[in-house]
UniProtKB/TrEMBL annotation:
The species this protein was found in: Thermatribacter velox
Enzyme class: ligase
Keywords assigned: Aminoacyl-tRNA synthetase, ATP-binding, Cytoplasm, Ligase, Nucleotide-binding, Protein biosynthesis
Protein name (record): Histidine--tRNA ligase
Family listed: Belongs to the class-II aminoacyl-tRNA synthetase family.
InterPro entries reported in the protein's UniProt record: aa-tRNA-synth_II, aa-tRNA-synth_II/BPL/LPL, Anticodon-bd, Anticodon-bd_dom_sf, His-tRNA-ligase, HisRS-like_core, HisRS/HisZ
Enzyme Commission number(s): 6.1.1.21
Phylogenetic placement of the source organism: Bacteria, Pseudomonadati, Atribacterota, Atribacteria, Atribacterales
Reactions catalysed according to its record: tRNA(His) + L-histidine + ATP = L-histidyl-tRNA(His) + AMP + diphosphate + H(+)
Length: 432
């Protein structure tokens, strides 16, 4: 019989790799706490039109990559390809634009895009994202970029590069697009087939093309760049973002061809890239999306945010061979008779209360087998509870490192193990 495997472009996350995920998730949550971003959890599927209207009808995501299906009532639903549209939908749906227009939210979770799978590109992948909604000034753009940058530093990935650009407001963008389309039409014969088609459907995407012929077109000195089309307000906004980054000593490069793959961006756009990831080198991307809520019937809502590809970050963390020392159980509880088992469970509850990690053995297994299991799992302490201990009302504690065994009252045992627990920390990335 043919084996059933995980679908193409998806994967199980387990074993050693889980430690890296835990470290990453804890870094994100801790950063969110410090910067006062609250968690938001939106549904994994939404009405298809949400993405069509916000991400953009002409984008690759909407045209080719969405997992769209009809439910049993004939509604068109889509597995979320990204998080921002749903976060803004939730903002409007819960009336935040009226009751509390400025919110800072973050999220973590799976996203779905029907893409050609390759290293760092999955069909089910995970993002974490930060969104500051209701904030119009460049200070919010700076905070968002700084959070992205701070997380990279915290993860020990300082060699990443940051690229920024401005896409202007709809007015500047419109003027730029007119010029861009004109230029692309004039040089249509020099473009690759895909770009010729894109020039019609979504001209900004042409700027992403890596084809040599197209690159030659872009390096033409007359090739229009968006910076030359920014209105005074957009140019000033961009100037303040750049000045802020310089003051904060965050290294960056202005990339006038950075356009992003979603249509909702206005003004600031940015990406954090890694030289170690091959073709899928963007680990984080984001920008400002003033006016995204217009699609939902609410005008004038500003917003800025970013999302990071967690699989890509995990790849970078594994490549660096960082060691994520996640302390296993501190103590093995070895019941040596059926009646000792319930005593061990009682002790287990008290240890859990004290945040002491333990591993519970089985009374059916011999003392020797349980000691061996503790040793193989690298657990230092073993609590032995047999008939003798039960009669004397004590617990024997064996220290496998020091090879000694002593009797403890329950109270002494709990305070000893709690002290030992305090000496250990849970996730410690150590550069190897
Ligand atoms: P995005 O650039 O489409 O932006 O995705 C953000 C990040 O998700 C990418 O930089 C990449 O690391 C990761 N990613 C995207 N597709 C895949 C995939 N197929 N497999 C693995 N990783 C992937 C957004 O999604 C925007 N919502 C970001 C944002 C938030 N803008 C403002 N706020």
């Amino acid at each position: 019989m043919q084996k059933v495997r995980a679908p193409k472009g998806t994967k199980d996350i387990l074993g050693e790799e889980i430690r890296i995920w835990h470290f990453l998730e804890e870094t994100v949550r801790e950063t969110a706490r410090c910067f006062s971003y609250q968690e938001i959890r939106t549904p994994v599927f939404e009405h298809t039109e949400l993405f069509q209207r916000s991400v953009g009808e002409a984008t690759d995501i909407v045209q080719k990559e969405m997992y769209t299906f009809l439910d049993k009532s004939g509604r068109s639903l889509t597995l979320r390809p990204e998080g921002t549209a749903a976060v803004v939908r939730a903002y409007v749906e819960h009336g935040f634009h009226v009751k509390k227009p400025r919110v800072k939210w973050y999220y973590l979770g799976p996203m779905f895009r029907y893409e050609r799978p390759q290293a760092g590109r999955m069909r089910q992948f995970h993002q974490f994202g930060f969104e500051a909604i209701g904030f119009a000034g460049p200070g919010a753009d700076l905070e968002i970029i700084l959070i992205a940058w701070f997380i990279c530093q915290r993860l020990g990935l300082p060699q990443l590069s940051l690229e920024i650009n401005s896409l202007g407001c709809p007015e500047c963008k419109g003027k730029y697009l007119d010029e861009l389309i004109k230029f692309l039409q004039e040089h249509s014969q020099e473009l690759c087939v895909t770009c010729r088609e894109r020039a019609q459907r979504n001209p900004l995407r042409v700027l992403d093309c890596k084809n040599e012929g197209c690159q030659r077109v872009f390096s033409n000195p007359d090739f229009p760049v968006i910076q030359n089309f920014l209105c005074e307000k957009c140019a000033e906004h961009q100037r303040r973002v750049e000045e802020g980054l310089r003051k904060l000593q965050v290294p960056f490069q202005v990339n006038p061809r950075l356009v992003r793959g979603l249509d909702y961006y206005t003004r600031t756009a940015f990406e954090v890239k890694s030289g170690e990831l091959g073709a899928q080198n963007a680990v984080m991307g984001g920008g400002r999306y003033d006016g995204l809520a217009d699609f939902l019937g609410v005008k004038g809502v500003a917003g800025v945010g970013f999302a990071a590809g967690m699989e890509r970050l995990v790849l970078l963390l594994s490549d660096k061979k960082s060691v994520f020392e996640e302390k296993g159980p501190l103590v093995y509880l070895a019941p040596l008779s059926p009646s000792a088992e319930s005593q061990c469970l009682r002790l287990a509850l008290k240890l859990a209360d004290l945040h002491v990690p333990f591993y519970l053995g089985e009374a059916e297994r011999s003392l020797r087998a349980q000691l061996k299991e503790a040793q193989n799992a690298g657990i230092r302490f073993v609590v032995l509870l047999g008939e003798d201990e039960e009669q004397r009302g004590i617990f024997s504690l064996k220290d496998l490192d020091r090879g000694i065994q002593e009797g403890y009252s329950e109270e002494e045992l709990l305070s000893f193990l709690e002290r030992e627990r305090r000496k250990c920390c849970v996730h410690t990335p150590v550069e190897s």
